[in-house]
């Protein structure tokens, strides 16, 4: 039910935005993905119990914890009211304000990189910032070859799978031509 509600909201938003885009002779690319959700741990309702997924959810790599969905029922004179609580890390999925999340130190800033104080954050973005040309960079073959060295799974040991910034298995400015 929650997935259908979220999907419908995204569809309506995409339709509203997409109609304007289509009229301009462009097309819309939907980058949304289902958000895996888990029941809460008994001792801490804000932490996920990954052994209790909702539907077919599987944990995903994330900077935060997995998403928690807990449903409570409150009795009413006519039955009950379902109230869902969703605890979601802002780093799940595609989001618009990545510019404010990863802050380089001077040594790691790429040539031509935008300093934090010059970047637009989510509350500063307008529609004109979210519509534009796209460059598709597909390094999936390189990544799959590297993952194939370890049965399809990454390993933190670069001798097994190498995803250091200096390897060919990450996107760099050289991939964008």
Automatic annotation (TrEMBL):
A biological process term (GO) from this entry: L-tryptophan catabolic process to kynurenine
GO MF annotations in UniProt: arylformamidase activity
Annotated organism of origin: marine sediment metagenome
The name this protein goes by in its record: Cyclase family protein
Gene3D superfamilies: Putative cyclase
Source taxonomy: unclassified sequences, metagenomes, ecological metagenomes
A UniProt-annotated Pfam family: Cyclase
